[in-house]
Structure prediction request, 101 residues.
Amino acid sequence: MNHQYFEKRGMRPLFVEELAVHPNYHGMGVGSFIFEQIEHAARLRGCTQIVLEVAENNERALKFYSTRNCFKLDSAIFMAKKVSVDAELLGPRKIRLPASG
Prediction:
């Protein structure tokens, strides 16, 4: 998370790492209760915003948050690279010495 983004905008965010409700408990008010508790914690800590990440294709979560007056802050693109599993340490390699002058 780029904290400078928020500082430049005078925002004091409470970052929510993850919020999920088991599908068996959807529609029972569990998510609403959790979100109310998060809002309360934010107020107690003097935060001005709650900031969380939602996948663009997670329509259920987007609807949940939008009905609670959450709005899209910015666009973000997540990049990934698959890493092969090799030996724990890389093997030795030659290093370039600076040219002597």
In short: DSSP finds three helices and two strands in the chain. Strands lie at 13-16, 49-52. The chain has a mean pLDDT of 87. The first strand starts at residue 13 and ends at 16.
